[in-house]
Specification:
Elements lengths: L6 E5 L3 H13 L3 E6 L2 H11 L3 E5 L8 H11 L4 E5 L4 H7 L6 E4 L4 H21 L1 E6 L2 E6 L3 E7 L2 E6 L3 E5 L2 H8 L3 E5 L2 E4 L3 E4 L3 E4 L4 E3 L2 H9 L3
Parallel strand pairs: 1-2, 1-3, 3-4, 4-5
Antiparallel strand pairs: 6-7, 8-9, 8-12, 9-10, 11-12, 13-14, 14-15
Length: about 230
């Protein structure tokens, strides 16, 4: 497996199992950024190391379980997780899938099963990340930009100013064409403005407040679309 660039976090309260998983991963070239045996340690390591994947035991023997870790991840980070469970924990699997894991593996864990599942998971994640990029034609260059970093679009005659979290790009295009390219994650608030729904903080009748504090105008034509959308 070409996995040198990948890192994993293991959340497992049985140390022998965790050590076995670590050995399997490292044999495949995947670095292990840590082993967590509690909810609190798992959250700390996730935030500190931002691993590429988390292997998570459903039933930690603590007050908060692996499902609690998964629920926190679903709300706060975009890191794929793979559940580890035993046969007797089958009743928990239904609840576990509400947190959108990529897969789950039944204990005892075999190296071949773990490796094949990880290969598929990491491949799917890389494909998903690639699909989250758009290419902007700036002058003679095609610049890849992550869609989730684009805050809003601002029309300027025959150009569109694409405002992102770390740069601004001037693209020769129409608002209509860029919105078709960017998809349903964007919505117009005004003839000259379109916003990434991820960055909308508050909507009023005359303006939209973004998470960065900027306020953009809302026109009568687009007011109802904004009010009716599900953010």
């Amino acid at each position: 497996m070409n996995s040198q660039k990948y890192s994993a976090l293991i959340v497992e309260d049985e140390l022998l199992i965790a050590d076995n998983i670590q050995a399997i991963l490292e044999n495949e070239g995947i670095s292990v950024c840590g082993i967590a045996m509690t909810y609190e340690k798992a959250l700390y390591l996730i935030q500190t190391h931002q691993p590429d994947i988390v292997l998570l035991d459903i039933q930690l023997k603590t007050e908060k379980t692996g499902i609690d870790v998964a629920k926190w991840m679903l709300k706060n980070v975009q890191i794929p997780l793979l559940f580890l469970t035993s046969q007797e924990n089958e009743p928990y699997v239904t609840n576990a899938f509400e947190t959108a894991p990529i897969a789950y593996i039944i204990k005892p864990i075999s190296a071949s099963n773990l490796v094949s599942t990880l290969k598929l998971a990491l491949f799917q994640q890389s494909q998903k990340e690639q699909s989250n990029f758009v290419k902007l034609k700036v002058g003679d260059e095609l610049i890849p930009v992550e869609l989730n970093t684009i805050i809003y679009l601002q029309s300027d005659h025959i150009y569109i100013n694409v405002h992102t979290t770390n740069a601004k790009y001037l693209v020769r295009s129409s608002m209509e064409n860029l919105l078709l390219q960017f998809g349903s994650s964007f919505i117009q608030s005004h003839r000259s403005y379109a916003l990434n729904k991820l960055f909308i903080e508050k909507i009023s009748s005359s303006y939209v407040t973004l998470t960065n504090g900027e306020e953009l105008p809302v026109s009568r034509k687009f007011r109802n679309d904004l009010k009716n959308m599900a953010i």
